[in-house]
Amino acid sequence: MTDFVRAARPNDLGDVTAITGRSTGSIAFIAGGTDLIIAHENLPWPDLIIDITGIAELDFVDVTETAVQIGAATTMSTLDRHKGIRKSLPLLAQASAQVGSAQIRNRATIGGNIASAVPAGDLLPVLKCLEVRIEILRHDGRTEVLEFDDVVVGSGETSLGNGDLITGIVLPLKHGANRISAFAKIGMREVLTIARLNMAIAANYDQAANRVSDIRVVAGAVGPLPLRLPAVEAVFQGRVIDQSLADDFLNALVSEIDNAIPGRYSQSYKRRAIIGLGLDLLRDLFDREFSPALPLMEPV
Ligand SMILES: Cc1cc2nc3c(=O)[nH]c(=O)nc-3n(C[C@H](O)[C@H](O)[C@H](O)COP(=O)(O)OP(=O)(O)OC[C@H]3O[C@@H](n4cnc5c(N)ncnc54)[C@H](O)[C@@H]3O)c2cc1C
After folding, report:
1. 176-297: CATH superfamily
2. Residue nearest to atom 10 of ligand 1 (CA)
3. What Å distances lie between residue 95 and 15, 44, 244, CA to CA?
4. C-alpha–C-alpha distance, residues 174 and 183, integer Å
5. What pTM was computed for the model?
6. pLDDT digits over 97-133, tens only?
7. Residue of the nearest CA to atom 19 in ligand 1?
């Protein structure tokens, strides 16, 4: 039994590789520590903890006309406040703003959220919705860029090996100014909310025609992995945005919940909750109010 833990605080990625390349035991990185510290209250600690908070290369946000790059150690507070993120990726700013309390957001990082791969993780449906690619520094110094689905592979499970570090995310901004997006979540409390349900939507909106195209809808906390909802996306095909579309959208969301968690005790709660989420998202995306669809009135 080990009664102490070795720790390292490298200053750059070269130092990280020097450490991971020669280390033989188990390794955990620590960024904000908001998940790691709690997880290891009950689990054995790894042989080596590598604190990545001193690595400036991991703490940056770069938004250009054509792409966004974010370092893995960027905190939720930074993402929430960043003007470029708010403008180009409002859903990411909104999700970051709704993680835990101000104290948690000041510590919690985007890399930690991905690596924890908790089904209720608020950034996960957003990152899947945005089709981000995740940059990885392997323990032996190789670098790779993988799709989100190839990194987050199960509840609390990633494809990362021992000593593999997420260095950041990257996504092209291929859609231009017509791209709209939003994130909403329902948690148990107003503050310190681990999501019981969350959802991200991104689409191209032709305001003159009042129609969307190229829409992606992803729900979180309904299963082990963020769930893309193609049947919900199909509702928008060739339709103008009006109350009739909103009704079909909300009904499609309820059907998806029924399919995702049939018979689960949380099903009746979640099918009502998703209607509330859907209404919040529609209001945010199109800046107008819609009424709840019929299922909200059904007895539970
Ligand atoms: C009170 C409270 C409220 C919370 N509320 C929310 C919430 O509302 N929404 C939400 O999504 N989450 C919430 N969380 C969970 C947590 O804050 C987030 O998941 C956060 O993003 C984790 O980031 P971190 O930097 O603190 O990770 P850490 O705790 O430092 O690390 C978490 C795990 O990821 C690994 N890791 C960290 N960075 C990297 C990296 N760059 N590469 C590889 N592995 C890495 C660590 O080894 C560890 O296994 C909450 C936590 C607490 C304690």
Report:
1. CO dehydrogenase flavoprotein, C-terminal domain (3.30.390.50)
2. 121
3. 32, 31, 28
4. 20
5. 0.94
6. 999 999 999 999 999 999 999 999 999 999 999 999 9
7. 113
